[in-house]
Amino acid sequence: MLYIIIAILIFGILVATHELGHFAAAKLSGVRVNEFAVGMGPALLKWGRGETRYSLRILPIGGFCALEGEDDDSADPRSFGRASWWKKIVILCAGAFMNFVTGVVIMAVLYAPAVGIRAEVYGGPLEGYNTENCGLLAGDRFLSVDGHRVLVYGNARFFLDRAGETIDFVVERDGQRVELKGVHLPYQERTDGEGNYTRLRGLTMTSTVDPINFPGKLGCAWKTSIDLVRTVWISLGDLVTGAVGLRDLSGPVGIVDMMGQVAANPELSPTPMDVARNFAELAALIAVNLAVMNLLPLPALDGGRVFFLVLNGILYGLFRKKIDAKYEGYVHLAGLAALMCLMLAVTLSDVGKLFGR
Rounded to 5 degrees, what angle do the CA atoms 225, 230, 231 make? Predict the structure, then answer.
């Protein structure tokens, strides 16, 4: 129950932060905001200030920002529908921007007590794999693997595992940037004599720890957040290509289960502070995930609405015509229904995995 409450609070804060982005952008753009609410359901507290009503509602599961003329035609000159196209795009994207900023802030807080930061370096060849002449030298610090920048610890191994047989490396060697093109490193299988196989490339990786100052901590928070964005994009690509399936996705039920597993694992969470840190990292991942997903050009999402704004701009420039708002509304409604069905399928899958253990 505790993890359910924590998960609800995390999602609620992130959704409320998202809506705060829309609210702030609308206010700065001169668009009328009728109501800004934290939480959903019946209002516990209401008050008004200027033209906007504010409310605190009973269910801590998000919030909303009601803009004048957002879903219907309004004669108010300060309505959303009558705002310039660039103001609409700024307002629509501001929610995702705030989610990303939230992720950066969480990571900055987590990096605050750090005195050093780990970096991956080449440890040397594995015996019997014929990788002694691959071009890498022990102590090389990985800067890029297979065209992907190494932003945080773990990136080098991750992209090495995903790469093909021929890999490009960029490393730092004795303070100099060195590029290694077309390094041939196929996977090779080995057995321990008992029928247990290992599949390795014949490389070892170790790490070094660099001291870190305050600007470096901010830089690490930024790089980690960018890496989370990249992780979300890679996951989406794997989903589209079929590398992962529905059972590999997780919704709220799966996230609560994951929180319980992390908290119960003494290696991952030996102390309450480690539990809190792991939960904070998960919150940062969810925040960045919401930012990326919400900007996808899909119906019912902010990215889908931006897509229609751009499309209508192109159509008007070419043919002096726009898509009827009624039909655009139908598309967004269908997209919302599809998203709800996907969420239901993912939730049922999560429940099935729980009972299938």
Answer: 95
- What's the count of helices (H) and strands (E) in the chain, helices before strands? 8, 10
- 331 Rama sector, left if φ>0, alpha if ψ -120 to 50, beta otherwise: alpha
DSSP code for 140: P
Task: Give the integer Cα–Cα distance in Å for 263 and 256.
Answer: 11
Torsion angle defined by CA atoms of residues 17, 21, 26 and 27, in that order, rounded to the nearest 10 degrees: 70
Please, how many CA atoms are within 13 Å of residue 341, restricted to the half-sphere of its CB?
6
What are the structural domain ranges in the chain? Answer: 2-111+282-355, 116-211
Which residue from 45, 38, 43, 85 is spatially nearest to 66, judged by alpha carbons?
38
Residue 339 has pLDDT above 90, yes or no: no
* Most confident residue range from 109-113, 260-264, 323-327: 109-113
Q: Is the four-CA dihedral 21, 301, 10, 213 of positive or negative sign? A: negative
Closest CA to 328 of 345, 314, 307: 307
Query: What's the CATH architecture for 116-211?
Result: Roll (2.30)
From CA 255, how far away is CA 346, in angstroms rounded? 11
Strand-strand pairing, 176-184 and 188-191 = unpaired
Which tens digit of pLDDT belongs to each residue from 273-287? 888 888 899 899 999
Q: Which two tokens stand for residue 228?
A: 């989370």
Catalytic residue among 19, 70, 120, 328: 19
Our answer to whether residue 19 is catalytic in this structure is: yes
| DSSP single-letter state for residue 219 | H
Neighbours of 210 (CB within 10 A): 10
